[in-house]
Amino acid sequence: MHEMGIALQIIDIATAAIPPEMRGRRVEKVNLRIGKLSAVVVDSLNFCLEIATRDTSLAEAEFSIEEVPVVAQCRECGYEWQVAQAVFKCPECGSGNLEMISGRELDVVSIDIEEPVDSEMQNQSR
Ligand SMILES: [Zn+2]
How far is residue 41 from each of residues 2, 23, 48, 74, measured CA to CA in Å? Predict the structure, then answer.
């Protein structure tokens, strides 16, 4: 499944983004941006994330997925627009010489990690 590969990729990126001193804490939320060109079905991705995060520090995390629209720019006249359907032609001048400037994103934007509990020993030297 396409989404499972992406889910594993997201988990890798998110896990790597947790600062070493915060390892072991519960991750509350992972904010993602996914471009519509990556053809991800959000429901399937959520399902895969749920399965793939079991027994990891992300097991209880909520995944917030923001879909990024596909934005194209015409190389001929510079016109920029959101591509709604698969017609890849500049609406201004009709040129097919386009650049996709967004829509392929697969970004972990931020991660919310739980605050340490008050009773926890604080002996950080920095
Ligand atoms: Zn154009």
Answer: 9, 30, 11, 28
